[in-house]
Amino acid sequence: MAKNSANGDHQTTTKPPPTPSPLRFSKFFQPNMRILVTGGAGFIGSHLVDKLMENEKNEVIVVDNFFTGSKDNLKKWIGHPRFELKRHDVTEPLLVEVDQIYHLACPASPIFYKYNPVKTIKTNVIGTLNMLGLAKRVGARILLTSTSEVYGDPLVHPQTEEYWGNVNPIGVRSCYDEGKRVAETLMFDYHRQHGIEIRIARIFNTYGPRMNIDDGRVVSNFIAQALRDEPLTVQAPGTQTRSFCYVSDMVNGLIRLMEGENTGPINIGNPGEFTMIELAELVKELINPKVEIKSVENTPDDPRQRKPDITKAKELLGWEPKVKLRDGLPLMEEDFRLRLGVSKKI
Ligand SMILES: NC(=O)c1ccc[n+]([C@@H]2O[C@H](COP(=O)([O-])OP(=O)(O)OC[C@H]3O[C@@H](n4cnc5c(N)ncnc54)[C@H](O)[C@@H]3O)[C@@H](O)[C@H]2O)c1
Ligand SMILES: O=c1ccn([C@@H]2O[C@H](COP(=O)(O)OP(=O)(O)O[C@H]3OC[C@@H](O)[C@H](O)[C@H]3O)[C@@H](O)[C@H]2O)c(=O)[nH]1
């Protein structure tokens, strides 16, 4: 029953889901939990798949168009009897029978989401509509990975879920942040109108192994630059802040949210806040003390500050991050060294 809403004022009754097959109710049939992960070949998605596959009662189906993700991230599961990988673009309808949907499909790095902005909007709007239609047809619970970018260039600090944000509707980032805002709206309208069980996570900057080496996001850029002896490119003014969450903490938070009773939106992130200059200095100290730090031009509408208020995640999910930035960076360094073929100097 989708009765426990974050705001309490839109209680709904969920109709019983249609039956995919009468076999599911047969005496000798022990159904596994069938879980769809859209965007499961990407950075967060592939770590989520690893965690879900640890449970022998889970069957995982990944759909991905491989725009920013890759089969390599899932290679240990390809061929596994409880795992399926399907090349599919979520802007097209999808027919599968599942119990839960983790809907992650969307490029997340600014350089990739700005590359084809119209496609980014289609992915967020039509892609989310398609996944909600699927959830409605089969009675699945659906979790959307929304973003701290729904707060735009925030005027409230740290950001609580009640804050409505300060977003430029016509800027170069709008395809992503307005796209995610519409995706959140669609989730709530399907919940109110059709009783769909929804969960919304507002994810703050996440980092870890398997990020694309040339992903363009700041942590992957700085680590790759430090390992290649290239200057760390701090975009001006460098005093802008972000709060970085290690990927294993993020995955645990997403699963807690899916399994719990709250619709969200709930901030999931690490409140440890750093300026970009501080981040560059930390990467330099931990990875390459000889590397230069240089200031470069910034891109339009870069949010000046970002830090999650995670009171709700703590109280409602019993979740908080465990990995400090200083401990997470070396784990990512190890993965980048392997992929770049740069060994540690002793
Ligand atoms: N990593 C972060 O810091 C962060 C922060 C906030 C929100 N998020 C959200 O989390 C999700 C995953 O982010 P990520 O960092 O793993 O990014 P990612 O780019 O590594 O993964 C996104 C995946 O979605 C796939 N994809 C993109 N468009 C698709 C489409 N139309 N159809 C099917 N697949 C498609 C990509 O190929 C990729 O595998 C995204 O929804 C993103 O908006 C991430
Ligand atoms: O080389 C770089 C790259 C980026 N930066 C700065 O680092 C900060 C973070 O930039 P990133 O590109 O990593 O990510 P952003 O915080 O701007 O956006 C992210 O926010 C949340 C998610 O939804 C997405 O993963 C992504 O859009 C920005 O202030 C940017 O100007 C640098 O200083 N140098």
TrEMBL record:
One of its GO terms (cellular component) is cytoplasm. The keyword DNA-binding does not apply. The keyword Amino-acid biosynthesis does not apply. InterPro entries: NAD(P)-bd_dom, NAD(P)-bd_dom_sf, UXS-like. Residues 1-23 are annotated as: Disordered. GO terms for molecular function: NAD+ binding; UDP-glucuronate decarboxylase activity. Catalyzes the NAD-dependent decarboxylation of UDP-glucuronic acid to UDP-xylose. Necessary for the biosynthesis of the core tetrasaccharide in glycosaminoglycan biosynthesis. Belongs to the NAD(P)-dependent epimerase/dehydratase family. UDP-glucuronic acid decarboxylase subfamily. GO terms for biological process: D-xylose metabolic process; UDP-D-xylose biosynthetic process. Keywords: Cytoplasm, Decarboxylase, Lyase, NAD. Pathway: Nucleotide-sugar biosynthesis; UDP-alpha-D-xylose biosynthesis; UDP-alpha-D-xylose from UDP-alpha-D-glucuronate: step 1/1. Residues 1-11 have a biased composition (Polar residues). Its EC number is 4.1.1.35. Its cofactor is NAD(+). Residues 36-330 form the NAD(P)-binding domain. It catalyses: UDP-alpha-D-glucuronate + H(+) = UDP-alpha-D-xylose + CO2. This is UDP-glucuronate decarboxylase. Coiled coil: none annotated. It is found in: Cytoplasm.
